[in-house]
Amino acid sequence: MLEVTGLKVNYGAIQAVRGVDFDVQDGEIVTLIGSNGAGKSTIVKAVSGLLRPSAGNIVYENRGLTHLSASRIVGAGIAQVPEGRRIFAGLSTMENLKMGAYLVPRNEQQDVLANVFDQFPVLKERRNQDAATLSGGEQQMLAMGRALMARPKLLLLDEPSMGLAPIYIQKIFDIIKMINGQGTTVLLIEQNALQALQIANRGYVIASGTVKLSGSGKDLLADPAVQKAYLGG
Amino acid sequence: MHTAMQQIINGLSLGSIYALLALGYTMVYGIIKLINFAHGDVYMLGAFWGYFIINKYHVDFIVALLSAMIVTAFAGMLIEYLAYRPLRNSPRITALITAIGVSYFLENGMSYLFGANTRNFPQVVQQHNYTAFGISISNIQLLILVTAIILMVLLQLIIQKTKMGTAMRAVAVDQEAAALVGINPDHVISFTFGLGSALAGAAGVLIGLYYNSIDPLMGMTPGIKAFVAAVVGGIGSVPGAAIGGFLIGLLETGVQAIGLSAYKDAAVYVVLILILIVLPAGLLGKNVKEKV
């Protein structure tokens, strides 16, 4: 479904991603794990069109993405839940969700909205509230609900558990599994390697802008090097 | 008492013109953090369009107003496309200086093409004065006030109730996050310039009716005063710009009424300085720390 080859991304003179290959198959949960500054977020921003790669290819359903704008990539079926949630403060929960469905025809929005409210009942309760007044966990759900409003085939999640209370962290991972169970392919970026590998079909370990290791979620969990570096083992 | 009431009425009609202009400043600032110093010149373009179409085709007030709004909306979008869009990722000071350049270009371009002389704006609405309880109000003052209020209500509806208006607010909060839900920020920014410029064009036709005279440099002082109004109200705040506009209008006529006509402009700038010292975020502005 998504195939990334030889991806390089620079910030000015600094090369943050130096030749990364990975792929995501239809229906999978694939996770990119690694420590802070490893280049994970840079990779996902290149996929969603926020950053232009300096080299390499990103192909989604036989279509090159490297020259499409971020908004066109949403139209192609990829939605991103950005790091730090980035909900629209000052807009109500409902307005945030409606913006998520910006490219969805109006007469189809009701069905999508009902589905999102099913998955996140708290958003329905808070629908008329300014999104800035939601708690951190609720904002994360709003960010996920907003991305789902675009009816993506591929959902990119950038550090969805970051900065959340432990009760929410478990909930967020449960929801990711549920979303995947309903047919959405997921690319998950996480520092929380244990939780991410537990729900992932496959994982890639990113360090210093390259892929260090890859394998099934189970294999990586059992790998001594992964345990030592990322699982506190 | 009568004089005070009279001055309030005069101040409100002048203030509604500043308010229409201030809205454009504040919307553009809200969305791309640019003080568009060419905004006052778009107002001048609106006045010249009104002058042209009324003299040439003898249209009535409504047609002159609406066509001026359409013309200036396109002018504003064109200015954004040609002058500001290529600088989207440049430092803010670059865009600011470019805005000053656009302003000079429009002022001198119009002087070159049509002459720098002042001309009489055709009186498409015959002036009548109504007097009640010793207070006099003209139909033109009423027309200005009512038109401005209708436009402001419409603007508020567009911003709060429509999809494009919601997208404007979303882009103003976080342009990248907006792109990630499928909004094309360029379209929204262009729309914002169009909307703000249409209001400036309307203000230009209204001021033509009110003061009877127009010239290519007519946008300079009102442009700066409307900018002050936007700062007083809290730059980026739409209701703030409307309130700021009315306050500046009232201040200016008030200063004139107590016999200090020569200082009416100075008073506005004193207010700017005071606001920046005492209440830098303005009356309705949010005191947000600059993100680093």
Spatial sequence of strands, sheet with the most strands of chain B: 1-4
Helix content of chain A: 25-40%
**Integer-rounded radius of gyration of chain A:** 17 Å
Q: Output the CATH class name of chain A.
A: Alpha Beta
The helix content of chain B, as a percent range, equals: over 70%
The number of distinct helices of chain A, counting runs of at least 4 residues, comes to: 10
Mean pLDDT score of chain A: 94
Question: Pair with the most extensive interface?
Answer: A-B, 27 and 17 residues
- Annotation, overall tally of beta strands of chain A: 10
Oligomer: heterodimer
- What's the rounded overall pLDDT mean of chain B? 92
The CATH superfamily of chain A turns out to be P-loop containing nucleotide triphosphate hydrolases
- Structural classification of chain A: alpha/beta
C-alpha Rg of chain B, in Å?
19 Å
* CATH third-tier fold name of chain A: Rossmann fold
* Overall outline of chain A: globular
Order of helices and strands of chain B: HHHHEEEHHHHEHHH
Which series of helices and strands of chain A comes N to C? EEEHEEHEHHHHEHEHEEHH
The general outline of chain B is: globular
The tally of structural domains of chain A comes to 1
Based on the model shown, name its key terms:
heterodimer; A: 233 residues; Rossmann fold; six-stranded mixed β-sheet; four-stranded antiparallel β-sheet; 10 helices; 39% helix; 27% strand; B: 292 residues; two-stranded antiparallel ribbon; globular
